[in-house]
Amino acid sequence: MSESEKIVFENVKFGQVTIDASSVLTFPHGLPGFERFREFGLVEIEEESPFLRLLSLEEPRLGFVIFNPMLVWPDYNPGISQEDLQGLGITRADQIAVYCIVTLSKVPSEVTTNLKGPICINTETMQGKQMILVDDQYHTKHSILATQQEQ
Amino acid sequence: MLVLTRKAGESIVIGSEIRVTVLELQGRQIRLGIEAPSTISVHRGEVYERIREENERAAEGDHQALKELSQVWKTAGR
User: Fold this and answer.
1) Residue of A nearest to B71 (CA)
2) What secondary structure does DSSP assign to chain A, as a single string?
3) Domain of A119, in residue numbers
4) Hey, are the CB atoms on B54 and A63 less than 8 Å from each other?
5) ipTM score of the complex?
């Protein structure tokens, strides 16, 4: 597979989307609520934005916005289990990327992210899984901007 | 939904690799033991529900709102 191999797919908001094959992320178990959807494309929004789109290759109406939670919570420690890491074939820290799903709102201060369900990715195999954390300090609606302002 | 009635000490086998055992009854609570391959995640139902709900809410997101969010993010100086 050449590095410049492209994948083209449809999305209801963005029309026809073209991505590198290397930007395809596979979720062997789908995502809670969307278990049937396994293949997604990672799309950058613009160069300086920390937000990425995760668009379904299989369902044009399905897409998420994700971002690296450490940008707002540098001490975020999801504590992913050995079993989950093994399931993704992760043996080294440099293979791991963690993103959290963002729930958008028209009011920026009401935009939240789900720290209780981080998406853990093996960046070499581009396989991912949404983890469900047991740690009670994390819940599903952490305000992104309110935290920024506090800092 | 398949409904089975079990006594303490009895179990249910799901597929070929998952076993749920009723360990003991303590008042209004039941202690369950779950044996499953480590590749299968096991979660309390209400926690899974919360993740599922938030995913569904997030999937409906207004991507127009994202533009404004990116702007605010930039001006917040990150």
Assistant:
1) A49
2) --TT-EEEEEETTTEEEEEEGGGEEE-TT-BTTBTT--EEEEEE--TT--EEEEEESS-TT-EEEEE-GGGT-TT------HHHHHHTT--SGGGEEEEEEEE--SSGGG-EE-SSSPEEEETTTTEEEE-----TT--S-EEHHHHHHH-
3) 6-150
4) no
5) 0.91
